[in-house]
Amino acid sequence: MVDFHTWQAGTETIAITKNLRVPMRDGVELAADVYSGTDDKPRPALVALSPYGKELQALALTMPPQRRPSPMWDGCIEAGDITRVVSEGYAHVIGDLRGSGDSGGEHIGNYNAGGVSLGEDAYDFIEWVAAQPWCDGNVGMIGISYFGSMQILAAAERPPHLKAIFVSGGHYDFYETTYHGGVMWFMPRAAREGRGGDSGWAFTDRVKSRMIEKYSEAELKELVAKRLQDPDIQAWPNLVHLLHYPTNHEAWFDIVMNELDGPWYEERNPVNLAKNIDIPVYLQLDQGRGWTLDGTIELFETLQGPKKLDIGPYPPMQSRPFIEEHDKMFRWYDYWIKGIDNGIMDEPAVSVFVEGSRQTVEAAQWPPKEIDYTNLFLRPRRKLSLEPELMGTQFAAPDGFYQAPLTVTDKVEIISWSTEPFESPTEMIGTGAAHIFASIDQDDTNFILRLWDVAPGGKRQLVTTGFLKASHRELDERTSEGNPYHPHTRTEPVEPGKIEEYVIRLYPFANTFTQGHKLELELSCNEPLADDHNALLPPDAFHLPVGRPVTHKIYRDAIYQSRLVLPFTTPS
């Protein structure tokens, strides 16, 4: 039943209409709440769509914004500041996607719900909003993360009344959201199940597994048995439980069962759809979430219309309820929706905040400066140097570490190398690569790299990360110096004891190492359970540990030149 009432938020009186029914073209109805002014004047609307539940988003009216590591931080309150939206002269429309919350229909799989593209639903939702008497016919969108991905899916369908979008912190290539370098990431479990700082989807019994829908019971049983043979899966109780009881968490089951990139992820890949978008798009993301930044840049380069790329400072997690970037968003929408010439399109298309120097670099393209890819070689005694090692393997014996499974130890082994202190400020902006020559005594492991900026007193800030499952080491034709790509479409088990070159993508970053600071490279096969960086992330934002006991030998000599390839923008 539709409910109408008003809410006093400071000096702003907000008219709230709850539980409106929005018809889709196939007869399914989605549920929506509208927050607007108390006058009768039509205004432009900002639409927010997700499966997280519109009632959760309403907490933006009553809960002060929380930052990590606050235990009250809830990653799913992402639809924006309702009071601010209304005070800026817009209507805020928050809807539940089909199969979730108060909406009808089924939700099956990823961005394709019950055979219907979520972008198609967004088209119908936006056009319905534009036709309402309280809307002046002009529509934008609002929200981060899943809400941001929905903006891209909606814009790709080209609804006539969608005038522009502003996307902050979106997830695009869904494989790269769930497997980083082929290493499973647990955060999607939190976003769907609701654990570790996330309320999760507003589940109903109408959310179904694509795998269960696609395969017969006998076929699925065989596929599950094969997946359970992975030692990493065997050593993680939650995953063993999930694979035996898949209807408990259908969407997470689909992700775990699809450990390779392919049709399930590509079906509605927003990056692939972006070529259909010709309306103005503003893309914003803070540093520290490399895989998302990678996708944001790829999306930016694919878009066809007016566009902006804004890369902000570290740390990576925004407040919940989400309030950041609203000033930029309203400036964008005031120009494209309200027609206010505020000069935003006279400014450079790309803006990048550089950590260390704390300066902003602007340009017409990414990367914003010319890059001189430079090698930093791993050397004995845990050093990084511009010069390679001159001795062969016989004399420059490999470094190494042994990692026992976390079933028998709490200790995560980490090996590191660092530069001498920089004598002058040294800026790096772009992607990078690590070429690691290694042998292991198992058929697989993880390579997890973290680059740190270390101050003279020892305080560290994360610069970027890189992930690669050893069996995913294959490179594809997109690879270039400092910019490797892995297709992740098949696995190639490692021959125990064989020295292999693993080329690991380092996610995009922008950092100036100021005078006296060092660059430190850390390598492990599991992540530390707690440190200064991980404290800024939700508790489930870590990767599946290696379930095998693995000995790693890292070669860095005249024959096997393990090295970093980094995007220097100043003389090296």
Give a written overview of the molecule.
The protein is an alpha+beta fold and 572 residues long. The protein has two domains: 3-208 and 245-347, Rossmann fold (3-Layer(aba) Sandwich); 372-568, Jelly Rolls (Sandwich), CATH 2.60.120.260. Strands 18, 19, 20, 22, 25, 27 and 28 form a seven-stranded antiparallel beta sheet that branches. Helix 3 (118-130) crosses helix 4. The chain is globular. The N and C termini lie far apart (66 Å). The mean pLDDT is 92.
Structure class: alpha+beta
Largest sheet: 7 strands, antiparallel
Number of strands: 28
- Multimeric organization: single chain
Mean of the pLDDT scores?
A: 92
Give the helix tally: 15
The CATH architecture of the largest domain: 3-Layer(aba) Sandwich
CATH-derived topology of the largest domain = Rossmann fold
**Structural domains: how many:** 2
Overall radius of gyration: 24 Å
Name given to the CATH homologous superfamily of the largest domain: Alpha/Beta hydrolase fold, catalytic domain
What would the principal axes of the Cα set say about the shape?
A: globular
Distance, first to last CA: 66 Å
In the CATH scheme, the class of the largest domain would be Alpha Beta
Strand % is 25-35%
Low-confidence stretches: none
